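Try this one yourself first.
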């Protein structure tokens, strides 16, 4: 069995790759007609991360849109996106435009900048038009550490008011992915995360012993590590035999409450009787979309985002009975983080 008890993980989990809020005269007119000009609900998302670099170094990267293709959480999903640049680097009016088959089309423009604040306008053109204001704040914690906070302010169409908290959570998840990529890009001068889309495959089922837990998205690293410790101790004491690579089901991802429910598990050779908090079961055979991720576990959210992006692009129906899962193919205690291989599966209907 691969021992995951000492692993620190930071999985973002399955997420939508982009939220676009329509802004057209039609929406404005309908709002006036039915709600007497009541303002559309505000949509604000925010995420932060600490980067081991000076505020000036972080600032130089953020105001240079030529660097964004290396760490943007959306361009990661479609590396072949056509990108063009305009204006003088670091000056208001500097920006970039993108056109892709999956990420749509749009542009980002720098509007104002100081040593501790960067402001941009974000315009989506396809699949439909929307607009948002984006800003970064840079807090110097010391001479070599900067806290970067990424904000987005927009508005929802009046008929989507009930989606406000959920959409905030989805955008926040994307921002966390992007900031983790930015951190590695600045600190390591590279991004050790590569996701390869394999396609639709057939996955054999297996019996397993597992442990269910719930946690916040931010606290998932310590939670998953602790859950694997429980299974490892049970394996040693009960001497049941593992039958393959460890894996993790994602039973629920609640973006509204910023929480998830998961089961970490090890395959077994046949059914095994266990007592709580452990559980046993069988992962059924299934057809699934597959992505192989190479790199640290804290970048696995990128691979999940790619899976969901592909399922939407291909207009596939996701299974409602088999949970998404990821399999850990090598041992993190003996493998360098950038060489860790994880296979991710999004089960499909039928």
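Now uncover the answer:
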């Amino acid at each position: 069995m691969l021992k995951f008890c000492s692993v620190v993980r930071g999985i973002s989990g399955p997420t939508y790759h982009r939220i676009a809020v329509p802004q057209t005269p039609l929406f404005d007119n309908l709002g006036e007609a039915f709600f007497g000009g009541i303002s559309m609900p505000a949509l604000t998302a925010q995420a932060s991360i600490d980067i081991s670099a000076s505020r000036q170094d972080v600032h130089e990267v953020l105001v240079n849109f030529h660097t964004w293709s290396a760490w943007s959480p959306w361009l990661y999903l479609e590396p072949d996106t056509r990108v063009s640049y305009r204006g003088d680097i670091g000056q208001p009016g500097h920006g970039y435009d993108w056109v892709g088959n999956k990420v749509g089309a749009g542009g980002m423009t720098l509007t104002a900048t100081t040593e501790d604040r960067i402001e941009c306008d974000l315009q989506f053109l396809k699949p439909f038009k929307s607009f948002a204001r984006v800003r970064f704040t840079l807090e110097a914690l010391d001479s070599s550490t900067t806290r970067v906070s990424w904000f987005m302010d927009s508005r929802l169409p009046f008929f989507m008011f009930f989606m406000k908290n959920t959409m905030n959570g989805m955008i926040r998840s994307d921002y966390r992915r992007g900031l983790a990529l930015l951190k590695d890009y600045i600190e390591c001068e590279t991004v050790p995360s590569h996701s390869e889309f394999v396609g639709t495959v057939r996955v054999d089922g297996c019996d397993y012993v597992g442990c269910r837990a719930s946690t916040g998205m931010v606290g998932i690293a310590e939670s998953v590590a602790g859950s694997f410790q429980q299974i490892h101790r049970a394996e040693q004491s009960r001497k049941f035999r593992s039958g393959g690579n460890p894996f993790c089901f994602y039973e629920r991802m609640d973006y509204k409450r910023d929480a998830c429910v998961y089961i970490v598990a090890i395959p077994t050779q046949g059914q095994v009787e266990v007592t709580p908090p452990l559980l046993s079961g069988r992962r059924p055979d299934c057809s699934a979309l597959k992505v192989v991720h190479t790199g640290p576990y804290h970048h696995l959210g990128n691979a999940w985002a790619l899976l969901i992006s592909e399922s939407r692009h291909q207009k596939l129906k996701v299974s409602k009975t088999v949970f998404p899962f990821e399999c850990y193919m090598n041992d993190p205690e003996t493998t360098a983080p950038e060489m860790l291989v994880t296979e991710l599966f999004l089960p499909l209907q039928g």
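Discussion: The chain has a mean pLDDT of 84. The longest strand covers residues 130-142.
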